[in-house]
Amino acid sequence: xxxxxxxxxxxxxxxxxxxxxxxxxxxxxxxxxxxxxxxxxxxxxxxxxxxxxxxxxxxxxxxxxxxxxxxxxxxxxxxxxxxxxxxxxxxxxxxxxxxxxxxxxxxxxxxxxxxxxxxxxxxxxxxxxxxxxxxxxxxxxxxxxxxxxxxxxxxxxxxxxxxxxxxxxxxxxxxxxxxxxxxxxxxxxxxxxxxxxxxxxxxxxxxxxxxxxxxxxxxxxxxxxxxxxxxxxxxxxxxxxxxxxxxxxxxxxxxxxxxxxxxxxxxxxxxxxxxxxxxxxxxxxxxxxxxxxxxxxxxxxxxxxxxxxxxxxxxxxxxxxxxxxxxxxxxxxxxxxxxxxxxxxxxxxxxxxxxxxxxxxxxxxxxxxxxxxxxxxxxxxxxxxxxxxxxxxxxxxxxxxxxxxxxxxxxxxxxxxxxxxxxxxxx
Length: 427
Fold this sequence. Notes:
The chain is 41% helix and 15% strand. By secondary structure, it is an alpha/beta fold. The strands form 3 sheets. Strands 7-12-13-11-10-9-8 form a 7-stranded mixed β-sheet, sandwiched between helices. Helix 13 (296-303) runs antiparallel to helix 15. It is globular. The relative contact order is 0.13.
């Protein structure tokens, strides 16, 4: 199969924009998501610190004369910069000295261990860019008939698109994940990538992040537990009870929290924050984060699921499709200067995703596999939430959307609710 050419990688445009507004840009995200490829395409020189010899030489040079590794055409890339945490302050100082924009690009797949060696936050010098595995629009598996950005800017825009994906297609895409390498692999080989990724997490990455030896079997049990709890606000105590049946009695909530924090540091998990807004009544809003992996394929590999197995378990399919949908919505939201949240209140009214732009405009999204009954239930839930919001203070939602796995068309229902298959959505 020919190598895949990235035509829609959203991070490419975001990086170019951030280089025009800051002296240095830090790209963070999980391994294998394409950070280095995105950075190299815009860098004019680079230092690849993932290479052991380059890493050793660079540490020596930095201790002798920092200017020796700063020299090079700009933007200059420092790939896996966190392996030498002292670089942060060196680059910050160099940005101050040069007084020019777009000087450096840093990539990192982990939060640096020796944060005590970082003396300054980088405010005013650095811009941050979060990368994730590819969305369906980026992998060219969405036709882009419906633009999320246009739903905010043109409220009367006609919404219509045709979806070609079947449930079998979505099952495969979900299990494969959005890892760029999989797009140039045979479909069967591509399904193995997430399993390799989970192996790397359990056997190495989670321990290397802070030089703390962690039990690989316990890591796998935690990943399985998190896989079963996707899309829920499960506290550490719930994860503890879920893991206890298959772990020795020495397991503690403190240990689980430590493992969970390590997964956050290597960008494997990315929980979704709660949306707090003005309501008409004094309904208490639940503020717990909702648990998600950065890509649904991690849950698939942790749970040992195949596309065929997924098609036989619609409950699990629904949970993991939600993880994929949240991944895509986050990527698209970044492109339009927005953030994604979730909503849950004491009356158990929920909304899977609220997309809020910097100017305060927002849209409500419910995520369903599809089917008329499920879509109608989602519409009712969206109506209930829309009626609870104090629109005198925050305005009406720009749109209400049911985002589905399947369905023949993207269209607007008579009540104004949009029903959009994920294979029709773009930024």
